[in-house]
Design brief:
It comes from Glycocaulis abyssi. It holds the Pfam family HTH_5. It is built from five helices and three strands, in the order ααβααββα. The chain is of the alpha+beta class. It has a three-stranded antiparallel beta sheet.
């Protein structure tokens, strides 16, 4: 696969698309929401309870996750339940945890990405 060839539909290279995807995962609040949703589909108030984030923070990040296609939503009576859009996202998060078991010391020592 040629990493520098532009995607015909978007003009983005494969590398740029990967970077954009990882920016979606790069926020601690979004990761907390995704972790909660890996367990089960949840309504906003349930996500707020599980993540201890504010309702407005959860809503803003859910909008981002929906726009990026990482999360999907379904109406459930008077609530909207949010869920992980693909089981591959859960698998990726599990793979990241396994990778961190190997490289955590280096990641924690890295000064280039200080929670920004």
């Amino acid at each position: 696969m040629d990493q520098v060839v532009a995607d015909r539909n978007t003009g983005a290279t494969a590398i740029e698309r990967r970077a954009k995807l990882f920016r979606g995962f790069a926020d601690p609040s979004r990761l907390a929401i995704l972790d909660a949703l890996c367990e089960a589909p949840l309504a906003v108030h349930e996500i707020v309870t599980r993540t201890e984030l504010s309702q407005s923070n959860v809503s803003n990040h859910l909008r981002c996750l929906l726009d990026c296609g990482l999360v999907a939503s379904d109406r459930d009576g008077r609530f909207i339940r949010y869920r992980i859009s693909s089981p591959r996202i859960t698998a990726l998060l599990n793979d990241v945890d396994a990778l961190l078991d190997v490289v955590a010391e280096g990641v924690e020592a890295c000064d280039n990405y200080c929670g920004e």
